[in-house]
UniProtKB/TrEMBL annotation:
Positions of the DUF7587 domain: 11-152
Biological source species: Aspergillus versicolor CBS 583.65
InterPro entries cross-referenced by the UniProt entry: DUF7587
PANTHER family reported for this sequence: PTHR40781, PTHR40781:SF1
Pfam family, one: DUF7587
Name used for this protein in its record: DUF7587 domain-containing protein
């Protein structure tokens, strides 16, 4: 895993996580985000390759060590809307994650890099989610979660972080998010 782990300086400043009731990532009692599998360690490229491929192909028969995040807020917001429409009654929220607070030992991977370098076979319907996706292994600390915005406007825990150059947002999204305050 070390070969593909991104150095802290290679990470975007902010990542975005879509959390919804049917997701395989759960919220810990302390507010952390926890992957389904927190014990398996992949030391060989072949096993990491299989784990990443199954995760990125949304294999529900597989317990994953990964938590999917996006580097683009607008893209994450669109994904949240899609999740909300697919799972009509579920609670959907957009979490803003500050990568500097993930910690020096955080295992974060670029989905694009894993797909390219490991030559992963990604199903057509999942290919669109690869660009700008980052996989965080095992856990995201509650300290790294800076904001939660619900589509139902039920909870907003922290003030929003300013947009960075890496963020690309659709017209009107910034105004909508500001109206939630």
């Amino acid at each position: 895993m070390d070969t593909f782990r991104l150095a802290p300086g290679d990470l975007p400043h902010t990542l975005y996580r879509v959390q919804y009731s049917e997701t395989m990532t759960t919220e810990g009692y302390d507010g952390s985000l926890i992957a389904q599998d927190t014990t398996t360690i992949y030391n060989e490229e072949e096993t990491l390759s299989e784990a990443a491929e199954r995760h990125l192909n949304w294999d529900h028969k597989y317990t994953s060590i990964f938590i999917s995040t996006f580097s683009d807020r607008g893209r994450a917001y669109s994904w949240m809307l899609e999740r909300k429409s697919r799972f009509d009654n579920s609670e959907c929220g957009l979490l803003t994650i500050e990568t500097a607070v993930l910690g020096p030992g955080a295992d974060v991977f670029s989905a694009e890099e894993l797909v390219d370098v490991l030559r992963l076979d990604i199903i057509d319907r999942a290919k669109g989610s690869i660009v700008g996706q980052y996989l965080v292994a095992y856990r995201i600390s509650p300290d790294a979660v800076r904001e939660y915005v619900s589509l139902d406007k039920t909870r907003q825990d922290c003030p929003p972080l300013p947009f960075t150059r890496e963020d690309v947002i659709p017209d009107g999204l910034a105004e909508y998010l500001e109206s939630l305050e």
